[in-house]
Amino acid sequence: MKKTKKTIVSVALATSLALSISSTYTAAAPVAQSSSSQAYNAVDKKVLNKINVDNIYNDIEYLAKTPRVAGTAAEHKAAWYIQKKLKSFGYKANVEPFTFVGYTEASKVELSADGTSYSPSSFTYSVNGNVSAEVVYAGLATKEELATQDLTGKVALIQRGSISFGEKVLNAAEKGAKAVIIYNNADGELNGTLGGANDSYVPAVALSKAEGEQLLEKVKAGTLTATVNIEGAEVSERISYNVTATKSPTEKKRNTDDIIVIGAHHDSVEGAPGANDDASGTAMVIELARVLKSLPTDTELRFVTFGAEELGLIGSQEYVDGLSHDEKDRIVGMFNLDMVGSRDAGDLVLKTADGKANFVTKLAQASSLRLNGAATPYSEGGRSDHVPFAEAGIPAALFIHDPAEPWYHTPEDSIDKISKEKLQDVAEIVGTAVYDRARPDHKGPKAQRGQSFKAPELYYQQDLK
After folding, report:
1. What confidence tens digit (pLDDT) does each residue in 285-315 have?
2. Which residues contact 431 (CB under 8 A, 6 or more apart)?
3. Sheet bearing 259-265, strands edge to edge
4. What are the counts of helices (DSSP H) followed by strands (DSSP E) for the chain?
5. Which of 207, 195, 197 is nearest to 135 (CA)?
């Protein structure tokens, strides 16, 4: 059993992928079909003839009956369903639990001042409390600005910008504030996170730019008393799950000692059934496990579905952290399937953490060239389960359609939005790419270990400030 790790995340925070991807993609240079193409196509057919898109669709339909938020009974049910399916193919499949510290958003968030009710939202990790006190303007709440300001017993009114929301709350609390109001510096609502649980936080709410400026004018006009009320927020330790299954090489005498990982995340965000994000990838992992089970291979294949991806790639990070140095050195590629079936999304693209081609993109581009006459383009992109593998120096790539569908992270991400044609296309490309390398006497590109990669920015950077 792997050693578990407590990781602080938010159950309500859901930012697995950007709503749109604007990077410039790079396609492989045209490759002339060689005399070996017939042999390659014959091998491809061994995979293509086995793929049944209805299996993928039916598993999506089952998984997408309800949201599968990490740490909930629904996620647990999904994990056991995946295990049962993998076992039915003859695998020894495991459900591997890990713990994390999760946050439940407040059930009640209220703000009133001198008889006027406002429309606040809470920050992820904001604490419960009911505070009535004078409102004092605290600017951006940097340490420099607050150096000579006494906020003892006050409600601090703070503008967004310069430093993180969490720093603003801690700085104000350090100067004695009993509650914090942060208003936006641009039009629109303000939603964000304090970055993690902290016993030093005071109740903090968010306001739009218009409402915040309205409060500021009242503060400038004279003494203003406000009441901040937050109820129902909860921080607690929870359990999520990874599901794993392994296909050992069947060609023992030609065993390469290499490993290929095919993965996807099975959790979804609160309120969204997650048919495309990411029941589609999970169901495809299940089907590819079935397809490849009976084919001869000289490479170890691992099929993994990850929990708590939506809360910060926790399951995949847990999995990578549990790998031995030998295993990390032996994994030649990680295929990450995330949002691979929406009828309303764009074309299939590949995303690598550093934007560079690697062993996985080369295999996939060669397969898409053989099957479709064009190589699937690639570009830089993180925010999904390939990132922890890349950070460990393992070649990895995300398979996703760009741009994302309008239903991303909404209750409308349902089975009726799934395209069997897109599922079929991705399953064929990934299945043949993996088998091109895992089959005995493979002739695909040679595996080259990548350099250890470090993500250039915080996972939640866009929500922190």
Report:
1. 999 999 999 999 999 999 999 999 998 899 9
2. 47, 48, 51, 288, 291, 292
3. 94-104, 234-247, 300-306, 259-265, 331-337, 396-402, 347-352, 378-380
4. 13, 16
5. 207
pTM passes above 0.90: no
Distance CA 189, CA 208 (A): 5
Name the token pair of 318: 């847990």
CA of residue 244 relative to chain centroid, distance: 18
Phi, psi of 122 (to 5 degrees): -100, 160
Evaluate whether 106 touches 126 at the Cβ level (below 8 Å): yes
Quick one: tokens of 431? Answer: 């299945």
3-state secondary structure 382-398: CCCCHHHHHHCCCCEEE
Residues in the chain: 465
**Do residues 240 and 217 lie in contact, with contact meaning Cβ atoms separated by under 8 Å?**
no
Tokens of 104: 């439940």
Cβ within 8 Å of residue 365, ≥6 positions away: 27, 28, 350, 375, 376, 378
The sign of the torsion formed by the CA atoms of 383, 141, 185, 189 equals positive
pLDDT tens digits, one per residue of 28-56: 443 334 333 444 578 999 999 999 999 99
Pull the structure tokens for residue 374.
């064009």
Q: φ, ψ for residue 40 (rounded to 5)?
A: -60, -45
Q: Report residue 395 CA to chain centroid gap.
A: 18
